[in-house]
Task: inverse folding
């Protein structure tokens, strides 16, 4: 079949985009940077996989014999090359745009030393490696002189993928730590240095002798001076135009694009490669302004989603893993990976340690610096195109880039499990206020925050429960300690953070985040005496992070709202299911069916002064007991009336015995002198406990129920039994799950309050 | 006047000095190394006249080379030979004017092809294991070649059969 050029190109690009998105998603699921998936997708489309497994398809898409309309070239992938080059030029402009010089200023001695060593050590080792590789893997070609090869290998080993590193730091919330600060500074320094080095190496490789070399150097100095002295002030003028107009006009965008292209053309003509011009242009743009952010957003999607995958695919087309079909070549590949890790990881780690940073933190900086990502691919493509490296060395170095990037996340998890460190730190801080009741409220949607805050406030109360010292005496000081409310909002990573630092967004304090505003306002307006702490960060695994924060903050209860899932009908599915299954503390899931309206100012049903009526269905499980304890808390703190509903089978001989046991349990929970409202204990004979609860709940404002087997809730955690109560209950519902070693479980204070004298609840047997 | 240097400055000075010394040593030693002869590119192979290969046609072969490792791909047959190892033979003292060292390409120790430079031209005589011999010329080098000063131009086009190379 004869294909026209445009058909070939459209087919190629469509295939590339589809596979890169799919692989990106898969790799994100595997806790790898999305860019790893896109890089792998590029390799998959090349001769290494598609061409090997399905040569016919590869030939059809990327090497068609007959293409009508081929103009300037007979290679149908040449147009992919052009698109990919344009993409990389604008990507480097974006990288320069994201480079923040303030990262390089006012950094401590450690960051400066580590950043310099993280360049020098791999550069030296990479150059030394060339001594071994050069006689075996390089040709006696003019641009493969040893000097060019050694400098190139050094530069390629020194590179760090700043965007990927920033992304990992953001996702793991390390960017505000000492380790994160060191790593980000080093990556920024490495970025600038690497592109300058690359310009130098390309200049050396291209120069045919001393005369042309000096000419290139002189022209480079003139160019850089011109950019700083003329272009930079002009860009500031453009920024003023933007500020005056209040928007980024298409004319301004066109001027900037034109400057990028002219700058790239100039550096290419001088002999130091077009990418350096694009990078410098981005680096000179005014930083941290709305002007740059808007420009970046305009450019980013097209570059990152459309053009960069083409670059990865074109790189994949040139990567022939099949060239490495001998054991000795794989040994060389292993050696390259070892040297790359020794130089970057080893150098950074030792430098950090020499500066007094702990081994663990030094190694963390080291593994972060070892991330090479797509920056390595950019530099390798230049090497291959310029004829400085051979195809086999290119394939080896691509494998090294993939391995070092893929290693980062798992090794980081191994040597620096952030959650563990956070837990240790938080436990140390929280030890003083251990007795204060703490609730972690996880807010997904802003509109649910206020209700959850109100509910958490009811649980925490105006004062924490009395603490008991070692001799069993109540501490009056501790009893005045406010409870703790931790408001947590976890954000899924947004796409642009795949390539950008995303640090500008991270600079917004958690308390100022719009998602937490209703919750915090509600907590303030209610005059809650509890200490309110707001947390917000990017999370890939929301459920796991909720559990980790709960552990780190040593909370007594995780309170989260329920939202109808996009897919499926299960109420206790998705994130809720994971939190219920995994969280190492008590968990409550709140389903709002009119509860929030009681307190909403605009609601006609609003009546916050009316005492709350709480129903606690009880069958005897530990989850049910937690439900009673929480109801007791709310009762104590708000004066709510509590009804414990015990459903017994109609024809069971030992029903009375069991009822006595249950009543005893209720007595233990509600024997609290501070309980202002009476507690009603009702026994209902019925063979369908679920139907009774659904029917009775209509007369209450809130149902608190344990996720027990009998309610058809607990089993759902492990199976697919219908959650009838959760679905059919007409009243707001709080489903609670007890955890054996929860922070507040069975605390001495609780036991004391449970056993102190108080009026007995009145028992009523329903007809 | 004594010059006072703090620790940090001293560390940096030592670091830079080590780096400079290391790079100097690497580049100095590296300049004595020799990479493999560059055969990469597209070759035209013409059967040598007089040999028992009258039925053979001239053909184009692409050599993809990474140092010692070489791949041959025949355009006409659309076939590829796996990676071959290149071995440089000792200089032939009998023919000191030879522009390049002769090389052989081997796979698993078995000789697959021998490239012997032809005196007075930039072409090679290629000998295959089955005894067939070709006159080969690099028509499209993969890497830019030095200008004519370094290598003499081809003395004759290779489109016509040539006389056998004297052993």
Result:
């Amino acid at each position: 079949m004869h294909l026209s050029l445009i058909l070939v190109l459209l087919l190629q690009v469509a295939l590339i985009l589809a596979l890169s998105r799919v692989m990106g998603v898969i790799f994100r699921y595997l806790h790898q940077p999305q860019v790893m998936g896109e890089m792998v997708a590029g390799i998959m489309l090349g001769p290494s996989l598609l061409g090997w497994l399905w040569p016919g398809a590869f030939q059809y898409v990327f090497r068609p014999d007959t293409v009508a309309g081929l103009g300037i070239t007979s290679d149908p992938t040449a147009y992919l090359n052009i698109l990919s080059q344009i993409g990389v030029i604008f990507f480097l402009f974006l990288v320069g745009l994201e480079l923040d010089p303030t990262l390089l200023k006012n950094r401590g001695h450690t960051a400066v030393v580590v950043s310099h060593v993280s360049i020098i050590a791999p550069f030296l080792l990479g150059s030394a490696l060339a001594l071994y590789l050069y006689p075996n893997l390089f040709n006696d070609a003019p641009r493969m002189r040893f000097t060019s090869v050694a400098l190139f290998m050094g530069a390629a080993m020194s590179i760090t993928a700043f965007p990927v590193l920033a992304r990992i730091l953001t996702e793991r919330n390390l960017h505000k730590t000492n380790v994160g600060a060191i790593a980000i500074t080093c990556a920024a320094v490495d970025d600038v240095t690497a592109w300058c080095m690359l310009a130098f190496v390309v200049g050396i490789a291209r120069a045919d002798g001393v005369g042309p070399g000096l000419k290139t150097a002189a022209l480079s100095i003139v160019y850089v001076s011109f950019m700083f002295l003329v272009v930079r002030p002009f860009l500031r003028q453009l920024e003023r135009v933007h500020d005056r107009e209040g928007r980024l006009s298409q004319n301004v965008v066109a001027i900037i694009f034109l400057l990028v292209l002219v700058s790239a053309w100039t550096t290419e003509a001088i002999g130091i490669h077009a990418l350096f011009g694009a990078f410098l242009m981005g680096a000179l743009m005014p930083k941290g302004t709305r002007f740059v952010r808007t420009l970046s957003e305009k450019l980013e999607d097209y570059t990152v989603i459309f053009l960069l995958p083409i670059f990865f695919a074109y790189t994949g087309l040139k990567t022939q893993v099949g060239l490495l079909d001998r054991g000795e070549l794989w040994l060389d590949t292993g050696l390259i990976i070892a040297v790359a890790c020794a130089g970057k990881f080893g150098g950074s780690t030792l430098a950090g340690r020499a500066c007094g940073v702990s081994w663990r933190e030094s190694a963390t900086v080291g593994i972060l610096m070892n991330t090479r990502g797509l920056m390595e691919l950019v530099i390798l493509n230049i090497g291959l195109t310029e004829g400085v490296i051979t195809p086999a060395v290119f394939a080896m170095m691509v494998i090294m880039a993939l391995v070092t990037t893929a290693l980062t996340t798992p090794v980081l998890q191994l040597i620096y499990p952030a959650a563990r460190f956070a837990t240790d730190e938080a436990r140390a801080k929280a030890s003083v206020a251990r007795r204060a009741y703490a609730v972690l409220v996880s807010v997904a949607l802003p509109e649910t925050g206020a209700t959850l805050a109100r509910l958490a406030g009811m649980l925490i109360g105006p004062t924490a429960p009395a603490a008991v010292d070692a001799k069993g005496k109540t501490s009056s000081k501790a009893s005045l300690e406010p409870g703790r409310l931790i408001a947590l909002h976890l954000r899924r990573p947004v796409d642009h953070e795949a390539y950008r630092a995303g640090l500008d967004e991270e600079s917004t304090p958690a308390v100022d985040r719009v998602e937490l505003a209703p919750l915090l306002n509600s907590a303030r307006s209610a005059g809650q005496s509890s200490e309110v702490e707001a947390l917000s960060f990017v999370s890939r695994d929301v459920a796991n992070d909720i559990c980790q924060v709960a552990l780190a903050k040593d909370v007594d209860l995780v309170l989260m709202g329920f939202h109808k899932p996009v897919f499926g009908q299960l109420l206790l599915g998705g994130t809720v299911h994971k939190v219920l299954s995994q969280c190492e503390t008590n968990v409550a899931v709140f389903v709002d069916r009119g509860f929030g309206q009681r307190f909403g100012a605009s609601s006609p049903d609003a009546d916050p002064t009316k005492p709350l009526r709480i129903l606690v269905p009880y069958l005897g499980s530990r989850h049910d007991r937690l439900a009673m304890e929480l109801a007791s808390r709310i009762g104590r703190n708000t004066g709510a009336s509590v009804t414990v509903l015990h459903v017994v089978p109609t024809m069971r001989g030992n029903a009375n015995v069991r009822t006595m046991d249950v009543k005893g349990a209720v007595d233990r929970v509600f024997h609290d002198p501070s309980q202002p409202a009476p507690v009603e204990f009702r026994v209902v004979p019925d063979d369908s406990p679920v139907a009774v609860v659904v029917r009775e709940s209509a007369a209450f404002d809130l149902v608190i129920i344990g996720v027990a087997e009998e309610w058809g809730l607990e089993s759902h955690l492990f199976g697919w039994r219908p959650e009838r109560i959760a679905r059919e209950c007409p009243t707001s519902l709080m489903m609670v799950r007890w955890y054996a070693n929860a922070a507040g479980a069975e605390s001495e204070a609780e036991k004391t309050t449970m056993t102190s004298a108080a009026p007995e609840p009145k028992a009523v047997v329903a007809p | 006047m004594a010059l006072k240097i703090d620790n940090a400055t001293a560390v940096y000075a030592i670091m830079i000095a080590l780096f400079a010394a290391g790079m100097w040593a690497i580049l100095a030693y590296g300049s004595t190394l020799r990479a493999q002869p560059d055969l990469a590119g597209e070759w035209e192979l013409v059967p040598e006249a007089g040999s028992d290969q009258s039925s053979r046609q001239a053909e184009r072969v692409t050599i993809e080379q990474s140092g010692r490792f070489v791949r041959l791909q025949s355009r006409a047959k659309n076939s590829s030979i796996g990676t071959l190892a290149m071995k440089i033979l000792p200089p032939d003292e009998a023919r000191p004017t030879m522009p390049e060292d002769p090389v052989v390409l081997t796979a698993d120790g078995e000789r697959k092809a021998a490239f012997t430079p032809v005196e007075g031209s930039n072409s090679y005589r290629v000998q295959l294991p089955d005894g067939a011999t070709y006159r080969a010329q690099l028509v499209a080098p993969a890497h830019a070649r030095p200008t004519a000063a370094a290598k003499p131009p081809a003395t004759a086009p290779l489109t016509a059969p040539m006389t056998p190379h004297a052993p």
User: Anything to note?
Assistant: The CA atoms of residues 564 and 571 of chain A lie 7 Å apart. DSSP finds 30 helices and 15 strands in chain A. Confidence is low (pLDDT under 50) at residues 463-480, 715-722, 743-767 of chain A. The radius of gyration of chain A is 32 Å.
